[in-house]
Amino acid sequence: MHKNGLMQEVEAxxxxxxxxxxxxxxxxxxxxxxxxxxxxxxxxxxxxQALGYAAxxxxxxxxxxxxxxxxxxxxxxxxxxxFEFELDLGNGRTRTIRVADLLDRAAELLPHRPxxxxxxxxxxxxxxxxxxxxxAVEGLFSxxxxxxxxxxxxxxxxxxxxxxxxxxxxxxxxxxxxLIDRVEAAEPRDLYARLTWDGFGDLDLAVDEPLGATAxxxxxxxxxxxxxxxxxxxxxxxxxxxxxxGFDGSYTFRVKPIVSDPDRPITSATLEVITHEGSDSEQVxxxxxxxxxxxxxxVTLEGGRRREVLPFVMPKVMVLENxxxxxxxxxxxxxxxxxTPSPR
Length: 344
What we know:
Number of domains: 3
Helix content: 25-40%
Strand content: 15-25%
Number of strands: 11
Low-confidence stretches: 315-344
Region (Disordered): 323-344
Structural class: alpha+beta
Radius of gyration: 25 Å
Strand order of the largest sheet: 6-7-3-9-10
Distance between the termini: 25 Å
Largest sheet: 5 strands, antiparallel
Oligomer: single chain
């Protein structure tokens, strides 16, 4: 119906399902209802109320929730400039819905994902909020991002500096300076490693981390904070591993020969490992690697700043829902002003 533009029917179908009050609800239902309200030129309040319910459903704890949907709700609310509003729960009850709170909750539930931090950068710029900007930068800088790490770090730094400039222009100099201090404090990384080689070919870097995980080509990010952020080959002869916030212990670096051009063979390689990179405690170690028979290199990290393991994300296709689980944890309030039943 949606594809055919039958949005009146979409609205009726979703409202009919929700009105039953007996079935499991999902955030997408309220998101779609909001889109249908919007398309059908309903009162804008109906749109925001539906999105508010989508947020409530997405925030349900454990497997009942859908934290990914918090990010969708944030986008839909921001597109309507609805950054804070009161959600009518019926029976005279209300709840304040804030985009800022939804982003904070998403960052808590999805610590391995970049979107909460990136969207917080946007919100900080919009609201001239130095604390949110600093927390977003700290979140991005605490992990390595395969394929985009340096670009994202550079952009986040520039956006923080631009916000600091705006703060100074608004006579908020102390806040500007505090923001810059927090950005600079977040930049050092516990561990940084760079593998380079001559010739034309490909060497792969694999890093065995102290608690048992391995960062390598097939699994560039580990639950312990390490990430292969660059995979080079050919004339781009460089591989980079970072662990901005790591656990203490021994990190073993293994070099795997993949291919070497007979006309321009790889004859030498170098592994540079930096602990506490960018800080006053920085230490640099350089190792010559024999590309024909590479030996593992082990470096010990002391004073690592990671305290929590990142979540392991199982592919969605492998997640099985238990049909016997309770359908809801939120008691249903009375019907609301927009006429949309509350999430169950």
